[in-house]
C-alpha cells in the first residue's frame, strides 16, 4: 500500500474508532438519563444516529479496501488466474459505476440544504453536515475501488489471481 493509502487507512481507522466510541458513550448517557433521572435530551438520539451514518459509510469504504464486501467468488475460484482477474475487474467497475451514480444523486440534497439553510431538529446544526456523509462515503468507496482496480491490473499483467478478502463462509 502506498504512503497516501496508508495515511487514508489510518484516518479511516481513527474516524471509525472515534465514531463508535462516541455512539456508545451517547447511548450510555441517554440510558442513564432516561431510566435514572427520568429525563432525556433532545440531541442524544440524533447525534448517535448521524454518527452511525458516518460510521457506516466509512466502514463501506474500508470493506471495499479490504475486499471484504459481499461478493460471489464461486466462478472466480474455478477460473484460471487471468479470467478470474478480469471477473474481479468487472466487479470493481460495477462498484465504480454505482458509486459514481450514488455520488451524483447524493450531492443535490446537500446543495439544496446549503441553499435553504435547513437545520436538524435536535442539534440545530446545518443538515448539510449530515447529508454530506453519503457523498463523502461514496468518494472514499471510489478511491478504494480505483486502488483495487490498479491492483487487479497488476495481477493480470503478472498472471496471478486477484487479491480476495476473508471468506465468511466456505
Automatic annotation (TrEMBL):
Provide the primary localization: membrane
Check the record and name the Pfam families matching this protein. DctQ
Record's superkingdom? Answer: Bacteria
Report domain Tripartite ATP-independent periplasmic transporters DctQ component positions. Answer: 23-154
From the Swiss-Prot or TrEMBL record, state where the protein is found.
Answer: Cell inner membrane
Keyword match Transport:
yes
Stated membrane topology is: Multi-pass membrane protein
> What UniProt keywords apply to this chain's record, in alphabetical order?
Cell inner membrane, Cell membrane, Membrane, Transmembrane, Transmembrane helix, Transport
Membrane-crossing segments per the record: 14-35, 47-64, 85-107, 127-150
What biological function has been recorded for the protein in this entry?
A: Part of the tripartite ATP-independent periplasmic (TRAP) transport system.
Under the heading PANTHER family, the entry gives:
2,3-DIKETO-L-GULONATE TRAP TRANSPORTER SMALL PERMEASE PROTEIN YIAM
Q: Which family does it belong to?
A: Belongs to the TRAP transporter small permease family.
Quaternary structure?
The complex comprises the extracytoplasmic solute receptor protein and the two transmembrane proteins.
- Name recorded for this polypeptide: TRAP transporter small permease protein
Q: List the top taxonomic levels of the source.
A: Bacteria, Pseudomonadati, Pseudomonadota, Alphaproteobacteria, Rhodobacterales
